Amino acid sequence: MKRAALYVRVSTQEQKNSGLSVDSQIDALEKYCEEQGYTVAGIYNDAGISARKKYTKRPALLQLLEDCKKHEIDIILFTRLDRWFRAVAGYYEVQNVLDACKVPWRAIWEDYETETSQGIFKVNIMLSVAQAEADRDSEKIRSVMEFKRNNKEYIGGKVPVGYRIEGKKIVKDEKTYRIVVDGQQRLTAILKFVRDELPLEKPYTGELTGCRFSDLPSDVHDDFLRYKIDINKYTVQLNKQELRKADFPGDFINLSEKLSENYFFVDAKIFTVRQRRRMLDVEFIEELLTVILEGIQSKKDYIDQVCEKYMHMENLKQIETQFNTAIADIATLFDEKIYPIGETRFRQKSDFYSLFACVIELRENGYVVINKENLTKVRENLKKMDEEISPSSSEPEYLEYATRCLSDANSDVNRIWRKDFIKRQIADLYYKKGE
């Protein structure tokens, strides 16, 4: 039985633009191994790394090469060639190592492989064309840059403090220094005021003259704290969720942070350590809470508005109870000892989101009692989903489900379609009171 190494990769920008996920790649590769009778020797995950980066900056790829040298791998699988390499020079360096180890690779969604002489020939032709195009583009870029340098024109990058662009050239900006100093003075004054070190004085005039921060009425106090100041946004790269915490402090984000600590999410392996470190677990909980508050939404563009709208929540306890009840239902369905969710496709955020929305909808429609006699039947339905959903499935509905997870997975249309599909699989789990 062949030992297959599964290599997956997605850059941060690709994830944002296309919804392509590491989980969907892993799922497709594992299903492929099952169909081919391969043993999974390991999953090598370079999430968040561009394929244009030098391969020495891709830790999972380096580990994969080490394992090849130890003769622990018979074949490398990935979904598409662009998951493996886009830079031609780097590709050949890695290929030399694989050739020495006699380890071929295969792209399961494309007709590229190095197991046969015909496959190697095809890949080499394709890479030769790509290299020729890259060389022509590089020559053009060098010529343009040389022309700009000779004419002392601006050629891109961050403009240094104290300079500005005028026409196509960088010139000194005499105003910049005064603006920077003024900005620092304003921030210092704000911090001193919050610490009660300064009273409100001229140029302010009004009924609060002479007041310190602690003297402000509660509504003015809150408005002041909500005032947005962009600090280090462009020198320290913060993700959207980290910025939301600063911009919209209040009930919604506090509740999301609290719910993200639910033991279920640890057991379900839905969040990685890195995602928790960057508050991406909280962001996903915000998406789930929004299902309760606003219904299914499209992508993540709405989260800022929801965070701002629900900074103060009168029904906080009710929403928390609804959320925890839905999670408890899911935990019952995916019993850790019988059918752990961490070993199924439902650990993927796209699937979990639709499952959660389905449970919320059933309960809101009055289906609030779990029929434990049907648990086995419902679990079998979900196990079949887990086994059959694939881009190569022969079942039209399972094929469509897989497609709606890969293409624009987070659109409201695809989320609703998946929710309705799952609802048909788990509807027998619930019944209304009195039935």
Strands in their spatial order, largest beta sheet: 2-1-3-4-5
How big a fraction of the residues is strand? 5-15%
Helix run count: 19
What share of the residues lie within helices? 40-55%
Q: Which spans of ≥5 residues are poorly predicted at pLDDT below 50?
A: 176-184, 232-236
Which of globular, elongated, flat, extended, rod-shaped describes the shape? flat
- Total number of beta strands: 9
- Would you tell me the overall average pLDDT? 81
Structural class from helices and strands? alpha/beta
* Order of helix and strand elements from N to C terminus: EHHEHEHHEEHEEHHHHHHHHHHEHHHE
Write down the Rg. 28 Å
> Major beta sheet, specifics?
5 strands, mixed
Q: Please give the alpha-carbon distance between the first and last residues.
A: 52 Å
Fold topology:
Blueprint: E1 3-10, H1 12-18, H2 22-36, E2 39-47, H3 59-69, E3 75-78, H4 81-84, H5 88-101, E4 105-107, E5 112-113, H6 117-150, E6 163-166, E7 169-172, H7 176-194, H8 218-226, H9 240-247, H10 251-260, H11 263-268, H12 273-277, H13 280-294, H14 303-309, H15 316-333, H16 349-364, E8 369-370, H17 375-388, H18 396-406, H19 412-426, E9 430-431
Helix pairs in contact: 10-13, 10-15, 13-16, 15-16, 16-19
Quick overview of this protein structure:
The protein has 435 residues and is of the alpha/beta class. The protein has helices spanning 12-18, 22-36, 59-69, 81-84, 88-101, 117-150, 176-194, 218-226, 240-247, 251-260, 263-268, 273-277, 280-294, 303-309, 316-333, 349-364, 375-388, 396-406, 412-426, and strands at 3-10, 39-47, 75-78, 105-107, 112-113, 163-166, 169-172, 369-370, 430-431.
